Amino acid sequence: MNLAAAVEALGRGAVVSVTSMAGGDLSEVSLVTFEDGRTAVVKRGEAEQIGREALLLRHIRAMSAAPVPGVLATADRLLLIEALPNDNRIATAWRSVGIGLKTLHIPSEPRYGFRFDYMLGPIAQPNGFSNDWVEFWRDRRLLPLAKPLPAATRKRVEALAARLGEFIPAAPRPALLHGDCWPGNLLVADGLLTGFIDPACYYGDVEVDLAMLTLFASPGAEFWEAYGPRDAGWPERDAVYQLWPLLVHLRLFGSSYMPQIEARLTRLGV
Fold it and tell me: Is 231 a catalytic residue?
């Protein structure tokens, strides 16, 4: 069955066109146009991953007022979601992004983690609940991705893991995180945030999302005015939290990310 026929089988109407969309690094993403002029985004991927993405989108919508695309339908390996406006002009929308991220970061769970594990493509994101944030970040983020590293770099990550409590708090407020908060997962139009997409949610330190955002972008002053100021010591915490996405990118996209990993380890003195 081709993609148009598969979408029609979801009962949303006759499909007149399917257009591939940019950004589908880890799954196939297309814009579908229906006979009556409506549009939607369809993602095709592994059934379990697709099902869990739908659950995460619904979780964000249920737990916060942060904008996310509505889930229209799921079936086997397909996820059909709302098509939200996007002009890719994030530089004009930093204030709205700050408000939206602050809205997402609500304390609605007493522990760190989530009720199910997730995947970033082929990379496992273990989310088992913990009451100790340092333990969570060490055992569910840093150490699993350290195993395949070259020996010298692996030892540096392991040395950081042994000293992790020196750099990150043991008990930050468990907030709902996007989990993959880079600009490509923020839709904006006319100076406003229209939606968070591709969530990899769990509960943890809000600075995880801030570190991810600043790894790939430079939010303007309007963002920080809207979101709020950062606590002292954030550069070191950023270096710790940015290691996770850099290690993921190293596995997914190759050795060009190794200098950034080494630079952050050096900044942390390990």
Answer: no
